[in-house]
Amino acid sequence: MRRIRIHTPSPAMVVALVALFVALGSGAYAAITLPANSVGTKQLKNRAVTAQKVKTHSLLSSNFKPGQLPQGPKGDPGPKGDKGDKGVTGASGPSGPGATFKGAWKTTNQTIGSGCTTYLNVSIYASTPGTVMVTGQISINLDHTQGTVDLMVADLGTWIVDCGNASTQYERLINPSLPTDPAYEETATMAHYYTIKKAGLYTYYMNAAVTDGQDPGDQFKWGTMTAVFFPNP
């Protein structure tokens, strides 16, 4: 039988074979290397990207569905904003029950009797409870005879025979020692406040009387009255 001889490769052959394998390996690696940006959603399998393969802090809140991320703690209040523009002026509201005014005057002569005599009056309507202020001024002529006493009183009142009382009325006394004179002139100014408890029409009077020494020459010459109503606040 013929014996087969096995030849041991020479060192040069070994080096040549190693070089061949290295060359073939490099070509295979190059053949399976993918170009940049060539792998997309379609090339990835389901669940191919796991938490271990995601870089820490690389995802945004927009990468998650609503409700997947827990709500963070409440933040500190922000700085105060700038003052807004002035708004449009609203429509005017209805007028409230303000003060009302009434006036009256008279310039004709009228004899003043020995009893309470009315010369002038003024009426005013009060829409609510409140206060009425009444003022009046009169000019009077007194006919005086020496040796007699002339006493005239005047006041504002709520009735035609209301000549007031000593604490409120205006009083003029002509001393009997003064000489006779048919034209002693006197001007009186008066004012009163009246409390109004309910709405209604109220009338006030200017009255006077010559309680001593009365004669036809004792007369009113002119007079004015005003009434102002102030509703309660």
Task: List its traits.
mainly beta; single chain
- Rounded to the nearest angstrom, the distance between the terminal CA atoms is 145 Å
Strand portion: 35-45%
Order of helices and strands: HEEEEEEEEE
Unreliable stretches (pLDDT < 50, length at least 5) are 26-31
Q: Main beta sheet, described?
A: 5 strands, antiparallel
CA-atom Rg in angstroms: 59 Å
Mean of pLDDT: 82
Structure, described:
It contains one helix and nine strands. With 233 residues, it is mainly beta. The strands form two sheets. Strands 1, 2, 4, 7 and 9 form a five-stranded antiparallel beta sheet that branches. The protein has a four-stranded antiparallel beta sheet with strand order 3-8-5-6, with no helix packed on it. The N and C termini lie far apart (145 Å).
Short description:
By secondary structure, the protein is mainly beta. It has one helix spanning 11-32; strands at residues 100-106, 110-111, 117-126, 130-144, 150-157, 170-174, 181-196, 200-212, 219-231.
SSE diagram, text form:
Layout: H1 11-32, E1 100-106, E2 110-111, E3 117-126, E4 130-144, E5 150-157, E6 170-174, E7 181-196, E8 200-212, E9 219-231
Antiparallel strand pairs: 1-9, 2-9, 3-8, 4-7, 4-9, 5-6, 5-8
